[in-house]
């Protein structure tokens, strides 16, 4: 009973928060002085964050791949005041902007979630053995495309197929960074070290060439497509039949709000933060600093490498 | 024009779009747009769907229309659903949808698999047009499986031993047949596959067959297909095919009737179908559509779904709101409302109840997708890789040469009623249209197929006491195609319709010259009821005929000659023709509107 009451209170709070947020972002406190008073802030959200962004309940919220938004910002023709994306895309875009025009506002960290390989438990056990107890991205990438029977699993599982998110999206670029870190074993690498990575990544990315935007659904519902998928803990939720591997070194997808030509009111930001937490993201200190996983240039090169190998 | 070239557009487009070949609308239904409900003044959302989900989506549309969700800016929305084969709809959308003959143009299109969306976009791109099928919501899912009677599957080691396409296909090429598995009483292994130029499940099975021939599960190449061993394997497999056809429903209905007669083992041993079909069959509803008054009766011997160990392919049933010039903003908005509606958990539970896997992850997979219905929700374990476009195109082209040859006797009714005007606009008679359709259908046979031509009516022969005349005996089509065309052009309407005697005579003639290496069949086109001038013996004649046909399909040493009747015009005796088809384990084709005869003839010839 208590749970039900709490749930109702929570739902009411979310509705109220959404109403408040909408009034705020539709209100008169528009930070863009060049636009008419009363115009709403134009918020662009990455598709991975579609649901939390619905808490903003504004017609001025648009959903678009971070790669698209980033390119528009760098080109100087972005129709956006506030950008909700991952720190990876924010850092990459900021670095590219510094070469051309005015920098972005400082990104504000909202929430984060660890990236891991969520794999069917029976496959996880085989990977554990095949990888000598340490199924890192490096070992998993080595196994990709090989028959499971070579790794000690049954032949009926076919070959090892891993689903990876499209790095055009917020979580996708963070995940690609995690995969590359797993391959090299640390973060101390640069684009000129990519030689052996290319073939390795091509094999690992092969099942993901179509750009699957619903990895978890495909994994669980379209059985046989993947053995596992790279997901954040927030996306995966609690799935009894899945185990998580490749969690070391820990790489987190960090969600940030980036002021582009304006900013999100503090109340709206907090509401978005609450929506993210409600969706399973870990709460991060809103005043905390965003730590870079890889140098932005390396992430940009990784993104390009992905495009090359999946083409 | 060959059958291949006629369907090459679809197949090649499928290939060029790198389309996956998952499933198809493997049930009947043309969906001519008749019988659509009156939407009143509401915003109309017409929906064209592949036939396997027509009943489900029609019910959901009714629910939606009656719900509060069916409203856009104060206006009511009204969803109407019609059935359209996936490949045909893609062609219509790309090349022009005639609303008079095809029904209303759709706002939402739901083919069997998203591959058809890619096909459509490719067809449009070929004509310099923008794409119509963009992002989609997957309504539901079902994998391709191999359906077998449970005892036969057990004989192969099921459920303990994983079974693959390679195992099935090796058995199909084994001259000893089921005797190799300790069951000589089951005779030869007989395989059921639909025609890959028509049916996506047939195409999927063909892909799986090619992979089995090469021992691969991915990366099928043109070089693999060019290997003589691959071609030989394919011919061996095709030799075990009972017949082809455009829809799997034909196999399932015939199988079910054989089961009800107590022998599900003689007609066919295994058929490549969607998982949902196994569930329907085991529920006692083999075609998945319960007609009025029909009650499901579980089969004596259930089927089980074998998920091939090499992997399989899926039908993902997308819902596209078409980006088409005839779709306005209000219709698109109403369409989105309907799509949201069908994704609701309570409606996705209906999807599950119908035997499909729900697209909504929040809805767990539940009964009837369970062992009790012969299927396994934890399968498949892996999937086959869809071949590259050029490989897929080559595969289809090769199949035309490798498929089992046919030996077909075409018997055309030339009774007086065939002289009735069938198309008031042109003045063409029923016989005129039938002649055109038959001549066109001749192009769909391979040169090495054998085709003969009979006509039937009363009063033939010198003494005017014959019921039929053999114009050309079954001969190699490559040698007699022009001769056949010429004889058909010369047909004229004459007297009565000795339906029963000519059917029996045609059957006996084909049986006498039976060729086990071919699909032996009679195509019987008739526009009327049996009328041989003597009514008193009609019942006895029919009984004798049906008994003879039934006996010919039973027993392990049977020499099946299948009779495919075409019920032509409104006066044809569809009921009797259906019984004739069923007795010979074939299918009846309805061309009650004579203007549909060309399309119907194409479907008939897809069996060969």
What report would you give on this structure?
The complex is a heterodimer of chains A (311) and B (608). Chain A is of the alpha/beta class. Chain A folds into 2 domains: 146 residues, D-Maltodextrin-Binding Protein, domain 2; 152 residues, D-Maltodextrin-Binding Protein, domain 2 (3-Layer(aba) Sandwich). Chain A is 44% helix and 14% strand. In chain A, strands 1, 2, 3, 4, 5, 6, 7, 8 and 9 form a 9-stranded mixed beta sheet that branches. The termini of chain A are far apart. About 8% of the residues of chain A have low confidence. Chain B has 608 residues and is an alpha/beta fold. Chain B folds into 3 domains: 148 residues, 3-Layer(aba) Sandwich (D-Maltodextrin-Binding Protein, domain 2), CATH 3.40.190.10; 186 residues, D-Maltodextrin-Binding Protein, domain 2, CATH 3.40.190; 201 residues, 3-Layer(aba) Sandwich (Rossmann fold), CATH 3.40.50. Helix content of chain B is 38%, strand content 17%. Chain B contains 21 helices and 20 strands. In chain B, the strands form 4 sheets. Chain B has a 6-stranded mixed beta sheet. In chain B, helix 1 packs antiparallel against helix 15 and helix 18 runs parallel beside helix 19. The longest helix of chain B is centred in the last third of the chain and has 16 residues. The radius of gyration of chain B is 24 Å and the shape is globular. Chains A and B meet through helix 10 of A and strand 12 of B.
How would the blueprint of this fold be written?
The complex is a heterodimer of chains A (311) and B (608).
Chain A: H1 2-25, E1 43-45, H2 50-54, E2 61-63, H3 66-75, E3 82-86, H4 87-98, E4 108-120, H5 121-130, H6 137-143, H7 148-151, E5 162-163, H8 170-184, H9 195-205, H10 215-221, E6 228-232, H11 233-236, E7 242-245, E8 252-259, H12 266-278, E9 282-283, H13 296-310
Parallel strand pairs in A: 1-2, 1-3, 5-6
Antiparallel strand pairs in A: 3-8, 4-6, 4-7, 4-8, 4-9
Chain B: H1 3-16, E1 43-49, H2 54-65, E2 71-72, E3 75-83, H3 86-95, H4 99-102, E4 108-110, H5 115-126, E5 137-138, E6 140-149, H6 150-155, H7 165-172, E7 191-192, H8 200-214, H9 222-226, H10 228-238, H11 248-260, E8 270-274, H12 275-283, E9 303-306, E10 314-315, E11 318-321, H13 329-343, H14 345-353, E12 357-358, H15 389-402, E13 406-413, E14 421-423, E15 428-429, H16 430-442, E16 450-460, E17 466-476, H17 477-489, H18 499-512, E18 519-526, H19 538-553, E19 562-568, H20 574-583, E20 589-591, H21 597-605
Parallel strand pairs in B: 1-3, 1-4, 7-8, 13-16, 13-18, 18-19, 19-20
Antiparallel strand pairs in B: 2-3, 4-11, 5-11, 6-8, 6-9, 6-10, 6-12, 14-15, 16-17
Helix pairs in contact in B: 1-5, 1-15, 3-5, 8-10, 8-15, 16-17, 16-21, 18-19, 19-20
